Amino acid sequence: MLSPLKKVIPIAPAAGADAETVWLYEAHQKIYPRSVSGIFTRWRWALVFLTQLVFYGLPWLQWGQRQAVLFDLEARRFYIFNLVLYPQDFIYLTGILVISALSLFLFTAVAGRLWCGYACPQTVYTEMFLWMEKLAEGDRSARMRRDAGPWNVDKLGRKTFKHGLWLAVALWTGFTFVGYFTPIHALGHEMLYLQMGSWEVFWALFYGLATYGNAGFLREQVCKHMCPYARFQSAMFDHDTLIVTYDEARGEPRGARSRKADPAALNLGACVNCSLCVQVCPTGIDIRDGLQYECIGCGACADVCDTVMDKMGYARGLVKYSTQNAVQHHWTQRQILQRVLRPRVLVYSAILGVVVLAMAVSLVLRTPFKVDVVRDRGSLARIAAGGRIENVYRLQIMNATETTQVFHLSVQGVPGLAVATEEDVTVDATQSRWVAVRVQAPYDAATPGSHPIHFQIEARDMHASVSEKSVFIVPR
Ligand code: SF4
Ligand code: SF4
User: What is the pTM of this model?
Assistant: First the structure.
């Protein structure tokens, strides 16, 4: 009897051949990754600690009187240590995205899916959730046995403990995420007294439950079916890219044997066919089948295979990081490293270097305030007292420093043009202020029509100035 979820597409049989049935729906097989230890696992845990120390710790860091990193969407100001950015500084966000993309291209060309295997939040949280799962339910075989067995008090208790741990971490993750957008000390106080705003509650729950679902349940399915990076990574690989590889020439023919047996006498390769490399794989694949898009390059199979090789007394590295060229031509580590500086890598590095340099220079030379000039829509131009022609503008001055600043306004572009309102404007620290500015010119200073002018805004204490374009209208 067919499952109602399974869709059957009959393929028209060739003359004389039997009909074939293709299953388009494949039921999900739960993966129970076995815990592993080794050099790559230690690196992954180091990255887990490092990334989570930054993620959970950064919002609590104070910088002067404020949070060091805060994206205040309501006030449209982003604080990153001593930088105060406005939406007008969007170019820096673009720069960060370009740098991230180029770094990803570069690291992928050199060492494959380093990001996926060690630093991607999906990997990091899955690792943390697996650790909690092991704490509550034991390692792979115990978990498999328990899941296959009937419900009892022990199973219920362990599952409740596990989900309690998961939910606690997930909700704390959601709270921390919101803490990047709302001052986290105040948010913590609001949470304690159940006074969080509805949007804050929504985003904390949304992010928290997304973490719970992705790291607790979806796991490898996010990498296999949802993440676009897995699909286009192969475009960035070449035959000198480091990937996790199985040394087929050395490993085959695979087969079980006793530790004391001589594989050559048995006509066997180094692979003892223990399947541990499959059991530790978080995506459930067999690295011995070759490079597969599901492989996130975590190195767990290399770690476990090394322990098997140690036990058997064989040389390590049956599964290892290597390149396709190295495997094919039996290159040494030195030869592999020599191929790192190949044209593709040099081009990526050069472009990345230029973008990083441009961004750094731009940040250093950045004027610490911004000005927007908007013409008053109420009147194009009018005749003021004394017969002078007057245009009215609205200037938005954004003070991106953390001290109160006095800005001096002046205007040029038409003979005799001058600011007729207050020339000095005070703007509080990290605030922006709209000011109405009347600009006047003598009656016969210019011909009727529109004339380009420039506002010059000078920050008195910083010796910095900004010039903004506008037009001055002379009526007929
Ligand atoms: S862990 Fe190593 S020895 Fe065991 S099956 Fe995998 S490749 Fe073969
Ligand atoms: S095949 Fe090896 S490196 Fe690839 S995901 Fe599985 S365990 Fe990680």
Answer: 0.84
